[in-house]
Design brief:
The protein is α+β, with helices and mostly antiparallel strands. It is built from 3 helices and 6 strands; from the N terminus they run αββαββαββ.
Length: about 110
């Protein structure tokens, strides 16, 4: 086995749709102009992340939404390939979060 083969093994590999995991964020907010809108986006979760790392990333995202009152620029139901991509795009200020929810979508044995 060459060094190139070993390096290639650690790159992102294709996962079938039934084995992909997503962290979904959705809710309603009030814009700076006062209108009520909804947001909904999901982040693909790498299977290599430990539960502790995943917990920290989700907590950091929720804190940015709830306490810093910011949301990422996104289209409704947009899927981000990783948390790195989510944090690297610009985030917009909002006036207030009305409600929000987070859920993890795991693959089930029946999919």
């Amino acid at each position: 086995m060459s060094i190139g083969d070993r390096l290639y093994r650690h790159r992102r590999r294709y996962l079938p749709r039934r084995r992909r995991m997503y962290a979904r964020f959705y809710g309603r907010f009030r814009t700076l102009t006062g209108e009520v809108r909804g947001f909904e986006f999901q982040v693909r979760v790498s299977p290599r992340l430990s539960r502790k790392q995943l917990y920290r990333l989700i907590t950091h995202t929720c804190n940015k939404i709830k306490y810093e009152k910011t949301l990422p620029y996104h289209k409704r139901r947009e899927t981000f390939s990783s948390f790195h991509e989510l944090f690297s795009i610009p985030w917009a200020r909002i006036r207030r979060i009305l409600d929000y929810d987070v859920r993890m979508d795991y693959p089930t044995p029946f999919d």
